[in-house]
Amino acid sequence: MTELYFCAGADIPIDLITQERLLERVPAWQAKNIRRRGGPHRQVSALAACTAMLLLCRRTGKSSREITVAPSDHGKPIAAGEDAHYSVSHSGGAFLVGISRQEIGVDIESENRRIKNPAERFFSPGEIAYINHGAEGWNERFLWVWTRKEAYIKRDGSGFSRPLSGFDTMGMKDIRSYRENGYFLACCCADGSEPTITRISAEEIIKCAMDLHHTNLR
User: Can you tell me the mean pLDDT for 112-120?
Assistant: First the structure.
C-alpha cells in the first residue's frame, strides 16, 4: 500500500524551540543539514522530515531511535533493513511525503511557480510536444511533466546523474499525478495501486512529535 501525506500550511509561525523538538525525531545528519537552512525553508524541511520519521515509526512499529536512516550515494534517504521506503518533497509552504513497501519517489510544485525559458534538453521529444501544445496552459503542462520527471528520478535514486531527456514519463503507468489545493503532486511507485492521499496540518505533526509514543497521523 502506498500512502501520500500532503501538508499545505507548513509555513505557519513555529518557534525555534518547537522546531528543535521536531528535529529530535530526525536522523542527526539530516537535522544538521536542515539547521543550515534559513527562514521558512528550515521550518518546512523540519516538518517534512519529522513527518517521514513518524510514518516510518508507524509502519515498522519501532521508535525513531531504533530506525537507521542514511543517505545513498546520490543523497536519497534509505531506511536500512526496513520493509518501508519513503520520499519527501517541498515547495514554498507545502510538502509531500510518500511511504510504501516499494521504492518510491514524490514531487510537489506550486501552481503559482512561473517558468521562463526552460531547457528542452531536460525533456524527451514526447514531453516537449505535450508542453508546447498551445500557449494556453503552457505553465501548467510544464509543471505537470516536471513533477513526474522529479518523482521518477527520486524513486530511481539516481538524482540528476542521468540524462533527463533519456526517458519519457508521459506513458508511465507507475507515475500518478494530482492537483491539490494549488499544487501539482506526482508519485512514482512500482506498487501499481492507487495511492491514498491524506491531508495533514502542521499542528497535527507537532502534536505527534511532542508525544514520543504517539505516531498516529491518521
Answer: 80
Where residue 217 falls among pLDDT bands split at 50, 70, 90? Answer: low
Q: Which long-range contacts (CB under 8 A, 24 or more apart) does 212-216 make?
A: 212/63, 215/54, 215/55, 215/57, 215/58, 216/58
- Say if residues 45 and 200 touch (Cβ distance below 8 Å): no
The class (CATH top level) of 3-210 is alpha beta
Q: What is the pLDDT of residues 142-154, one digit of tens each?
A: 999 999 999 999 9
All structural domains of the chain with their residue ranges:
3-210
C-beta of residue 198 within 8 angstroms of C-beta of residue 5: yes
The Cα 97–Cα 106 span in angstroms is: 7
Pairing state between β 85-91 and 183-189: unpaired
pLDDT at residue 63 tops 60: yes
- pLDDT tens digits, 155-177: 987 766 677 888 899 989 899 99
Model-level pTM? 0.92
Whole-angstrom distance, CA of residue 111 vs CA of residue 183: 5
DSSP secondary structure of 21-69: HHHTTS-HHHHHHHHTS-HHHHHHHHHHHHHHHHHHHHHHT--GGG--E
Angle at the Cα of 80 (from 74 to 82), degrees rounded to 5?
130
Rounded to a whole number, what is the distance in angstroms from the first to the last CA of the chain? 15
- Beta strands 196-199 and 3-7 are parallel
Closest CA to 90 of 73, 104, 110, 70: 110
Is the pLDDT at 215 greater than 60, yes or no?
no
